[in-house]
Amino acid sequence: MRSFFATLLAVVIGSSLVATLSPAKPDKVDGLNVPSGRIPQEIKNNKYPRTYFPNTEKLAADEMRITALGTGMPNQSPSNVAASFLVELGNGESFLFDLGTGSSDRLAGLEPDYSKLDKVFASHLHTDHVGDIAALWVGGWLNGRYTPLQVYGPSGSTPELGTKVHVDHLREAWAWDVTSRAGTLPNAGGEIVAHEFDYSKTAVIYDENGVKVTSFPAIHIRDGSVSFRLDWNGLSFVFGGDSVPNKWFAKEAKGADVVVHECFFTPEQWVRIASWPYKQAYWVTSRIHTPPQGFGKLMSMVKPRMAVAYHYWNHRDLELEIYDGVRETYDGPLAMADDLTVLNVTKDHIEVREVTFNHEAWPQGTSKEWDTAHRGEPATGLMSDWLNEGALEGLNPPPTQPID
After folding, report:
1. Which of 150, 170, 218, 365 has its CA 20 to 30 A from that of 315?
2. Given pLDDT bands bounded at 50, 70 and 90, which one contains residue 47?
3. How far apart are CA 27 and CA 38, in angstroms?
4. Which superfamily is assigned to 4-388 in CATH?
5. Is 97 helix (H, G, I), strand (E, B) or coil?
6. Is residue 172 a contact partner of residue 178, using CB atoms and an 8 Å limit?
């Protein structure tokens, strides 16, 4: 169910209004900063429908679409699954930044082409940022991906705490699952590949087909957290996983088109909603995360075309407080993201809307490439003889087409 504030954004600012926020003393309209006298004309002239319905709009060749799949935390709620953002480009490519627990459900609702969902960029190895990688690895394989899943992620202070070992352990943990699908699914789609890079360096970690992704250090609990910047066709997207404000983010996000950064609770809010002692609440909210006022100060330094706040519960009694906290220190363009907030980005316009999808949507199906991709022998000989001998013959119908 949409939260109150998210609904307000979708209905009142469902057109280009968020993108045209002005820092020069804007009027207050329904509690939101928008230029006076603009609402009717903006909505009237807007080329985008008020709601985005998956697969109903063709992405322009020079356009970027960013969808918040998950905006919550490890202790997620039904309205907030864990962190993930999908970036789709007009050149046909797709990129996933984090894939926290539950986010693959939201992804399925978009009815995507899974063959294009083969790249995940992990900011750090918390479950609310990488908990659904295995779900995409196997689920995407069944739904049309016939190439390996590529996971780009940071090193840690020791090899055991890095992305490569994490992915190696995923492969080991799901060996029963993956090996049992041999022969039924394309061989290559069952592979998962780790691309581990040095978390301590600002460096380009992906550079293909005109798309460049840069990683830079983040400050979050321990060594091994990063943020990312994607540049393509003169457009830029910056994604912060979890971090306190830091010099690397302030530099790399400067002037970017869309900047996503966590906007956590205040210590007082965390005490109230989580019943934690203040000492621990302050540590979590203000030493390893970024509360609203800190988010606002950082965005005032970065000055993006659109700042996107996330990583909080979209509860009615909290999000307006968080919004007000941001506005104490930042008066620029702002979107308070909830699950399924979507942004369309071109060089002269940023549209902020909400996705509406069919909760009973089916996968889009496979392709000729998936159907004909190389497969090995079917997964036979994996059961003990005594178990095979327990099968009741003749109950399942025989094949109606040749299977050899």
Report:
1. 218
2. confident
3. 10
4. Ribonuclease Z/Hydroxyacylglutathione hydrolase-like (3.60.15.10)
5. strand
6. no
Pick from 184, 110, 180, 108: nearest CA to 146: 184
Range of weakest confidence among 217-226, 348-357, 394-403: 394-403
pLDDT digit string, tens, across residues 58-97 = 999 999 999 999 999 888 788 899 999 999 999 999 999 9
Residue 178 burial (10 A CB sphere; 0-12, 13-18, 19+): buried
Q: Cβ distance 97 to 64 under 8 Å?
A: no
| Sequential DSSP letters for 122-155 | -S---HHHHTTHHHHHHHHHHTT--SPEEEEEE-
pTM for this predicted structure: 0.88
Any idea which residue has 């327990």 for tokens? 390
Helix, strand, coil in percent for the chain, rounding step 5: 30, 25, 45
Q: Are 151 and 163 in contact (CB under 8 A)?
A: yes
d(CA 373, CA 147): 9
What distance in Å separates the CA atoms of residue 225 and residue 348, rounded to the nearest whole number?
33
User: For residue 91, which of 210, 257, 236, 235 has the smallest C-alpha distance?
Assistant: 210
Kindly report the backbone phi and psi dihedral angles of residue 33, in degrees, each rounded to the nearest multiple of 5, phi listed first: -85, 110
Determine the angle formed by the axes of helices 133-142 and 163-173, rounding to 10 degrees: 50
64-70 and 341-346 beta bridge pairing = antiparallel
Asked which of 35-44, 192-201, 281-290 is least confident by mean pLDDT, the reply is 35-44
Buried b (16+ CB within 10 A) or exposed e, 194-211: bbbbebeeeeebbeeeeb
What contacts 395, CB < 8 A, 6 or more positions away?
Answer: none
Residue 162 corresponds to which tokens in the numbers above?
């890095």
Gap between the Cα atoms of 214 and 230, Å rounded: 6
- H helices, E strands: number in the chain: 14, 18
Query: In the block, which residue shows the tokens 């934690």?
Result: 276
What is the Cα–Cα distance from 291 to 281, expressed in whole angstroms? 11
